[in-house]
Amino acid sequence: MENPFSSLQSQNPISLAQQSVENVHRAVKQAQSHPSEETVQNARNALEKAERSIAQAEGRMNQEPIDRAKESLETDRGFLAEVENQLNN
Asked: Is the pLDDT of residue 68 over 80?
């Protein structure tokens, strides 16, 4: 039988922030493997959404997953900057 609380649990702000960060990671990987204005813009959009999700999850009871999400986001931001530099040169 399906867990009636699973969808509620997966929709908490921390989980949403983590999912958004995973989306950024995928979008940045796509931009790295197929550098174009479109893939870079998709990654930028995902980055902005993840930043909003993290902001909404800030101050929740468990700060550790938020801190990890921020670290991952900063790493991906650096990778995206590298792709942008490649496109601009």
From this structure: yes
